[in-house]
Amino acid sequence: MRFRMEGPTVITLDDKRTVYGPGQLTWQDGEIVSLGPENSDPAPVDQLIRVGDAYLLPGLLNGHNHAAMTLLRGVADDSPLFEWLHDHIFPLEAKLTAEDVYTGTLLACAEMIHTGTVGFADMYFHAEQVARAVEQAGLRAWIARGITGDAQSGQPRLDESLEFATEWRGHPRITPMLGPHAPYTVSFDLLQRVAAAAQECDLGIHIHLAESPQEMAELAQRQTTPFALAHRAGLFSSRILIAHGTHVSASDVDYLVGMRGGIITCPVSNAKLGNGILPYSMLREAGITVGLGTDGPASTNSLDMFLEMKAMAWLQKLAGRHPETFRAEEALIAATTATASVLGHAGGQLAVGRPADFIVVGRRSAHLTPEHDAVANLVYAAQGKDVRYTVVDGHILMAEGIITAFDEQAVILEAESRAKMLTS
Ligand SMILES: [Zn+2]
User: Fold this and answer.
1) Stretch 324-350: mean pLDDT, rounded?
2) Same structural domain for residues 231 and 302?
């Protein structure tokens, strides 16, 4: 089947930042086959969708998530990270069943599809249930089973991760990764084993590093930093997705130069937990790729990447004490091409031969009028609920605000009752 969307302003985010307004995009078998000004492709299609008053742009990529934590949204908000984790979240997570993780992830997928996210990197347990929900929802995902413990207690979790990777490797939309949680929850010898397994099995690594001041203080007592420790364990020998990296110092940058992967900043989570602001300008100058993510919905409360783009811009401008420290386009790039680059994925920009992963954002609304600058409108004024279409791998997962892949209302009811059972 060949599809075409005709009429919206097409923002490609390609290297020349080409914009076609009004434009068209044609796709077949999950790939973009032509794009350009309106009526630029005379070849017939099986389905033509006319969309006026809208922007068509690459789908957003959420580079760091714990999707099933939707069921814990709003639990013990406003407490510090370590207290929140150890006293509230870990005891509840111990009660989560496989079906809870499946339902929580599907609920997250509904929220992501509505707000224009086409793929996400996830770290959680019951990874096979995360994959089951993602497969049903039609999104793309980079899934890691969270690994914690020491060489003895953590080995079964590493074994499970490798079994999961063997089972899902080669799936068109799901990429397995290894997910050692953080240097404060994984012993050094287990980190070394994960690094060796990642190299042997050619898997990427997803890890939290330098998220909070407490973590930095703990590692300082061991005369090291999270980056030095990760380097010593061998984690940088594979593709690595570093969630947060908030407290990266100038001397740590040496570990990052030339790495495969990059940092995923989660500004809303970092602000809400009072953890700090990523030194983005320093990383930009060093040529380190910085993508964007929400973190889990229990710490961020929202999976809306439009909110995340605003937060990234606000915090960077605040940190730099100057509005020119950070431009709107940088937030949009972080949420698309930069996150794709961290993941080693061909998405994040629109061009012939690239994946047909895109969204359509309606612009005929009071808060997007007038349009002096499309990118500024998308980053500073648009909201996730403005998304009208979400297309992944050529499949239309949402059309005019209606999710087509699954019964969203049934998932909401199921999630509601499971969340109540969990906390009762
Ligand atoms: Zn996280």
Assistant:
1) 97
2) yes
- 69 and 90 together in one domain: yes
Question: Distance, CA 411 to ligand 1 centroid (Å)?
Answer: 24
Ligand 1 centroid, distance to 209 Cα (angstroms)? 10
Look at the chain and report how many structural domains it folds into. 2
Same domain? For 173 and 296 the reply is yes
Residues 212 and 288 in one domain: yes
Identify the domain containing residue 382 by its residue range: 2-59+350-403
State in Å: Cα 29 to ligand 1 middle: 34
In a domain, residue 90? The reply is: yes
Average pLDDT score over residue span 154-165: 98
Question: 23-28 and 31-37 as β-strands: parallel, antiparallel, unpaired?
Answer: antiparallel
Residue ranges near ligand 1 (ion) with Cβ within 5 Å:
295
What's the gap in Å between 207 CA and the centre of ligand 1?
Answer: 8
Is 414 within the bounds of a domain? no
For ligand 1, the distance from its centroid to the CA atom of residue 242, given in whole angstroms, is 10
Least confident piece of the model among 91-95, 223-227, 230-234 = 91-95
Centroid of ligand 1 to alpha carbon of 58 (angstroms):
24
Question: Parallel, antiparallel, or unpaired: how do β-strands 60-65 and 117-124 relate?
Answer: parallel
Say which CATH number the domain at 305 has: 3.20.20.140
Q: What angle do CA 249, 250, 256 make, to 5 degrees?
A: 85
CA 117 / ligand 1 centre spacing (Å): 18
Whether 7 and 138 map to the same domain: the answer is: no
The CATH number of whichever domain residue 25 belongs to comes to: 2.30.40.10
Q: Is the omega angle on the peptide bond into residue 91 within 30 degrees of 0, that is, cis?
A: no
For tokens 């964007």, what's the residue?
Answer: 292
* Same domain as 257, residue 160: yes
364 phi-psi bin (left φ>0, alpha ψ -120 to 50, beta other): beta
pTM strictly above 0.85 = yes
